[in-house]
Amino acid sequence: MSDTIEYIQENRDAYLEELFELLAVPSVSTTGDRLDGCAKLVADVCRRHGLEATLVETVGNPIVYAERIVDESKPTVVFYGHYDVQPPGAEELWDSPPFDPTIRDGSIYARGSGDNKGQFLTHVFATGAVLETEGEPSVNVKLLIEGEEESGSTGLIEYLEDDPSLVADADLVYVADGPAHQSGRPTLIYGNRGILSVEIRLREANTDLHSGNFGGPIPNAAWSMVELLGTMRDSAGGIAIEGFHEDVDIPKRAREMVAKIPVDAAGLKTELDLAELRVDPDRYYESLLLEPTLTINGLESGYTGRGKKTIVPHEATAKLDMRLVPDQSPETVFERVREHVLAHRADADVEIHGTFPPMSTSLDTPFAETVYGALSDVWSAEPVELPLLGGSLPAAYLQRELGTPVLVVPYANPDQGNHSPNEHLDVDWFENGIGTTAMVLKRLGRVDR
Question: Please, what's the b/e burial string for 421-445 (b: 16 or more CB within 10 A of its CB; e: otherwise)?
Fold first, then answer.
């Protein structure tokens, strides 16, 4: 295997050149900018590295499907990723243009560098490296690279629910996405929390009113919204929506795993300029990974411009998200939220904006030992294991439709800044990601399915 690692090191500049070509394409799924062209480019890169590739048309953006079939009797690993990216935001906040990839201080700066182009390309390059140095991988290799992860994965979900025959033989789904643990150690994750996004709208009068002429006797929509949101929390800061926790059952093994995760509470408070955390440091990861949350994402009401405008707002909007844990159903939780809101304000509008279900893989899956060993060997460090990713991924749909284990193995540095200005992927992390996948492809064939 050292020949493969050496080959990867020798070809790093060539890999970076291909990555830069892909990063230069502004494939923002919320605007639909150049997504077909980006999908074709991904397929071309796959072909250059020994994979057969095709585009699967969907109701949304095309999925890039690529494969290297070694022997149909051998296990099959499906690598999931996405070629779409977040909008760059205000370009003046970037130190270099977001779609002009640049290396500074050992990091690749560009939108999509870590989320997710740089991460899914590691699997493509690793497959090619194994083919060049080992002959063939020990398993069948398939890639499913979608173009709408940042805007709901509509096409992927339809494909999986309709006829996922191309990947129906999967024994393992492998996802390189998200940042690694804050300690900088390689990370192995067994699932992810789900998400439910909701918008609540209230209306009182038919227009904003003069606060001197009407303030007092006339209801204020902003206060009405604050009071409504207040009913969703109890005196200890917990979620007070009836039935919200009814399907939550945290396994003992998961609690034991999070108890071992290192947390630098002082460093977090310094980095984020916080006086205190909401939980004791020894409960940080239990709260972050194993418990559902209710988050106010934004509030809008009345006048928020410069100076003053003395009005009684007549409308108010709140956007919320709930991070859900196995085995919570986003649809069921939405009904509980809706029932709670309408019980307090029967005329409120409650709208669902999007969901991803939570997903968990058994902590005893036999594939985990192989991945753990590959991470340890390539990174020369003990991996951090997380029972769940705090964020949400569409990998849950792959697990649900294919009935296969899903492992999340981030290849991006903890400070990658995905979704933020100056998103970046450290070159060393990129190279180690290629090496990790190559080692996994060499060893997975030994696993007893």
Answer: bbbbbbbebbbbbbbbbbbbbbbbb
Contacting residues for 98 by C-beta, under 8 A, at least 6 apart: 26, 88, 91, 110, 111, 421, 423
Calpha distance 244→330 (Å, rounded): 10
How far apart are alpha carbons 132 and 378 in whole angstroms? 19
Q: Which residue segments constitute the domains of the chain, with CATH numbers given?
A: 2-192+359-446 (3.40.630.10), 194-248+292-356 (3.30.70.360)
**Six-digit token string for 161:** 């629910």
361 beta partners? none
Q: What is the pLDDT of residues 205-232, one digit of tens each?
A: 999 999 999 999 999 999 999 999 999 9
CA nearest to 329, candidates 400, 278, 281 = 400
Calpha distance 328→388 (Å, rounded)? 14
Q: Within 10 Å of residue 9's Cβ, how many Cβ atoms?
A: 12
Q: Are 148 and 155 in contact (CB under 8 A)?
A: yes
Contact status, residue 441 vs residue 127, Cβ threshold 8 Å: yes
Band (pLDDT 50/70/90 cuts) for residue 447 is confident
